[in-house]
Design goal:
The protein has 13 helices and eleven strands. The protein has helices at 3-10, 14-23, 26-36, 42-49, 53-66, 84-95, 107-115, 118-121, 131-143, 161-169, 174-179, 200-212, 231-236; strands spanning 40-41, 69-74, 77-82, 123-125, 128-130, 147-149, 157-159, 186-189, 196-199, 216-218, 225-227. A hairpin with a 2-residue loop joins strand 4 and strand 5 (128-130). The protein is globular and about 50 Å long.
C-alpha cells in the first residue's frame, strides 16, 4: 500500500470524530460508566454523579447522537442504557491511559462510604466485582503473586504461572478470557474506594466463577451483590 493510501486509511471517519468528541468530557465518561452498571434515569444520574439534571440531559443528548446510549421506557419514566458492546472497549482503552482519565469521586460516592452501604461493600462494575470486596480481592491476588502489575505504560496486570494454576483450580475460565477481544486484565479505579479492582476479561471470568460456586449472589435489584461465603475461603482454595 502506498503512503497516500495508508494516510487515507488512517483518516478518521465523520462517525469516529463524532464519537471522539462525545468522549472528550469527563462528565460524559462518568455517565457512560454509570450506565454500563445498569440503566438509569436523568434524576438518578444527576444524584449519583453530582451534576444538575439539565447538564445530564445535555450530555445524554450528545451521547444519543453517537448511538452510545439509547432511551428506554420503565413504567412512566424514561431511562437510558449504554450500548455495552461499543462502550466497554472504548472505556477500557481510555481508562488504560491512567488515573488522570477518571473523574474525582462525587459526593454520592462519599455518602456511600460514610454509610458503608451494601453498594459500597460489594457490587458489579460492568461485569466484574467492585467495591470493598473487589478491591480486597485484587489486593489479595497481588499479595499471593497470582497477578503482577504490567510493566508497560498501559495500567493492568499479567497473570503469573502460579496464578494460572490457582485460577484454573477455582474454575476460572482463563482461556476464554484470553481469547476475548477485550483487554485481558485491567486496573479499574473503584468508584467508592478510589483504589483499583480487577477489570477486563479476567475480572469478568473471576466474578462468574465466584457466582457459579456460590460465593456471591446478585441482589433482586440494583448493582449490589451479596457475598454469601468469605472470599478468603475461595482464595485459600
Amino acid at each position: 500500500m502506498s503512503t497516500p493510501d495508508i494516510l487515507r486509511a488512517m483518516t478518521p471517519t465523520p462517525d469516529a470524530v463524532l464519537v471522539a468528541t462525545a468522549l472528550a468530557d469527563a462528565s460524559r465518561l462518568a455517565i457512560l460508566a454509570a450506565l454500563l452498571e445498569g440503566e438509569a434515569t436523568v434524576n438518578e444520574l444527576a444524584s449519583r454523579l453530582d451534576l444538575t439534571q439539565p447538564r445530564v440531559s445535555t450530555h445524554l443528548a450528545r451521547l444519543r447522537a453517537t448511538g452510545l446510549v439509547v432511551p428506554m421506557a420503565i413504567g412512566r419514566h424514561r431511562a437510558y442504557a449504554a450500548d455495552a458492546a461499543r462502550v466497554k472497549p472504548l472505556l477500557d482503552a481510555l481508562y488504560a491511559t491512567g488515573p488522570a482519565a477518571v473523574a474525582r469521586p462525587s459526593r454520592h460516592a462519599g455518602r456511600e462510604r460514610r454509610r458503608d452501604t451494601p453498594l459500597r461493600r460489594a457490587r458489579t462494575c460492568y461485569d466484574h466485582l467492585a467495591g470493598v470486596a473487589g478491591v480486597g480481592l485484587l489486593e489479595a491476588m497481588e499479595k499471593r503473586r497470582w497477578i503482577t502489575p504490567r510493566t508497560t505504560d498501559r495500567p493492568g496486570y499479567e497473570l503469573t504461572t502460579a496464578g494460572q494454576r490457582a485460577l484454573a483450580r477455582r474454575e476460572v475460565d482463563v482461556e476464554s478470557a484470553r481469547a476475548s477481544r477485550r483487554r485481558f486484565a485491567t486496573a479499574c479505579l473503584d468508584w467508592t474506594e478510589r483504589r483499583p479492582h480487577l477489570g477486563g476479561a479476567l475480572g469478568a471470568a473471576v466474578l462468574e466463577a465466584l457466582r457459579a460456586r456460590g460465593y456471591v449472589r446478585r441482589r433482586p435489584r440494583g448493582r449490589a451483590v451479596k457475598v454469601t461465603k468469605p472470599l478468603a475461603r475461595w482464595l485459600a482454595g
